[in-house]
Amino acid sequence: MGSPTTPESVRTVVVSKLKENEAEGSKGVNLEELKNKMADFAEERDWDLFHTPRNLLLALVGEVGELSEIFQWKGEVPRGLPDWEEKEKQHLGEELSDVLLYLVRLSDICGIDLGKAAFRKLELNAIKYPASLCKGSSKKLALLNKSTTTTSTNSSFYISSDNENGATDGGE
């Protein structure tokens, strides 16, 4: 465990990392580094006892609610948020970060490699929603191609043309 974390030390590290990323031309986030920072943060405060999967999930849901409140009553918002004030965008970034950090922590506590799981899910979605059938449409696959029944090789999902609402039978 490193030295105790203070707001000043966190700010110094964050500013330093931002400058490093800018210098390297990198805008990416390393999930492993976030996971380690969150683990250190919790350990320094003796919060590991409270960071159970259930508690983290409920905290994550709460943060998603706070994120939703930002958009509540705004109607559709154009990409890039051109009409938003900088203060609103900063608040949005903070709430998005809360969601990300709880998600990273939850995946760590559950022993899930979030990066690998995300890439696997993208691969499964590419099979489940082929571009040739879905391109340019927001309809569920079952409604796009009513004559097709698709089953994965491991039976983790099943889409039936008989299911008009587009719901799947099995896990997502």
Automatic annotation (TrEMBL):
GO biological process: dCTP catabolic process; DNA protection
GO-annotated molecular function: dCTP diphosphatase activity; magnesium ion binding
Name by which UniProt lists this protein: dCTP pyrophosphatase 1
InterPro entries: DCTPP (IPR025984), MazG-like_dom (IPR004518)
Catalytic activity: dCTP + H2O = dCMP + diphosphate + H(+)
Residues annotated as domain NTP pyrophosphohydrolase MazG-like: 52-118
Function: Hydrolyzes deoxynucleoside triphosphates (dNTPs) to the corresponding nucleoside monophosphates. Has a strong preference for dCTP and its analogs including 5-iodo-dCTP and 5-methyl-dCTP for which it may even have a higher efficiency. May protect DNA or RNA against the incorporation of these genotoxic nucleotide analogs through their catabolism.
A single Gene Ontology CC term: cytosol
Cofactor(s) in the UniProt record: Mg(2+)
EC number: 3.6.1.12
Subcellular location: Cytoplasm, Cytosol
Subunit structure: Homotetramer.
Ranges annotated as biased composition (Polar residues): 157-166
Region (Disordered): 151-172
Keyword Metal-binding assigned: yes
This protein's UniProt keywords: Cytoplasm, Hydrolase, Magnesium, Metal-binding
